[in-house]
Every structure is written in structure tokens, then in C-alpha cells.
Amino acid sequence: MASGTEGSITESRIAAGFLLRLSMVAPVAVVVAALVAGSRGALSAIFALALVGINFLIMLVLFRQGARFGMVGVMAAAFAALVVGLLVLTAATLPVAKAPWMDLPVFGAVVILGHLAAVLVESRRVSGRLGDGGLRPWKVVR
Predict the structure, then answer these.
(1) Could you give the CA distance from residue 98 to residue 74 in angstroms, rounded to a whole number?
(2) CA triplet 105, 107, 112: central angle to 5 degrees?
(3) Fewer CB in 10 Å around end: N or C, the chain?
(4) pLDDT digits (tens, 9 = 90+) for 104-127
(5) Mind listing the pLDDT tens digit for each residue in 50-60?
(6) CB atoms within 10 A of CB 60
(7) Is residue 136 part of a domain?
(8) Residues 68-101: pLDDT tens digits?
(9) 78 Cβ contact partners less than 8 Å away, ≥ 6 residues apart
């Protein structure tokens, strides 16, 4: 991971790219959820997608802070992001779990698939070398 201003630019580019892709996929997820479970499914999917976005932004902030301390900081940030993300999901879900608009199976599926998709898409772009600027181009030129 890069440090300083370059690192901030990298995390900003990752966040902007993720939010752009989330905004493109979200309508499809909401429509599919509505077809599966009606308005309860659609509302649950919207709530789940919002939590996925919030968790991803929390992760980026923690990684940016951890990168200032090198690879050990990045690893500590990854652990902290997992713990904080799970706490945010739990704290946001428990109060509304029995709400009349909540469909837990749809919510759970969207949260799980949303996180998996976000990590898989972004892992293709993030460079694993500390000396890099943080992102690889989409097309690799050989």
C-alpha cells in the first residue's frame, strides 16, 4: 500500500470504483429481491446494500490508516475491518430483524453476495506489492 497523499488517492479511487459498481448492480439486486419476496424483499435488499457499502467504506478507511504503519498495519487493519464490519452489521440488523418490512433470508443473501462480489471485484484490481501505487490497470499489457 502506498502512504501519504498517494495512498489517499488510491483508497479514494477504490471507493469511487466500488460505489459506482454498487450503484449499477443495486437496481438489479432490488428487482430480483422484489420478485422473490415482494416489497419486503426489496426493502431488505436496499437495507443490505446500504450496509455493504458502509462496511466497504469502513474497510477502506481502516486500510488507509493501517497502511501508514507498513505491512503489519495493513494486516492489523484487515483484522480490525473484519471485527468492526461484523459489529456494524450486527448493530444495524438486530433492531430491525423482526420489523414487518424485513425479510431475513433475502437480507442475508444480499449481504453475503454483496460482500463476496465486492471483495472479488476489488481483489482483481488491488496490487499486492507495497511498492506499487496500489492499483493495477484493468487490462494487463504484456
Answers:
(1) 37
(2) 95
(3) C
(4) 999 999 999 988 887 787 777 665
(5) 999 898 888 88
(6) 19
(7) no
(8) 888 888 889 889 999 999 999 999 999 999 999 9
(9) 63, 66
Q: Which letter, b or e, does each residue of 35-46 get, where b requires 16 or more Cβ atoms within 10 Å of its Cβ?
A: ebbeebbbbbbb
Residue 130 lies in a domain: no
Residue 138 is classified by DSSP as S
**Cell 472479488 belongs to residue:** 120
How many Cβ atoms sit within 10 Å of the Cβ of residue 28? 10
User: What is residue 2's predicted lDDT score, i.e. its pLDDT?
Assistant: 46
Total of domains in the chain: 1
Provide the greatest CA pair distance for the chain: 55
Integer-rounded Cα radius of gyration of the chain:
17
Mean pLDDT of the chain: 82
Query: 53 is in which domain, residue-wise?
Result: 4-125
Do the domain assignments include residue 137?
Answer: no
Rounded distance between C-alpha atoms, residue 27 and residue 52, angstroms: 14
Please choose, from the candidates 137, 89, 95, the residue with its C-alpha nearest in 3D space to the C-alpha of residue 115. Answer: 89
Q: How far from chain centre, in Å, is Cα 37?
A: 24
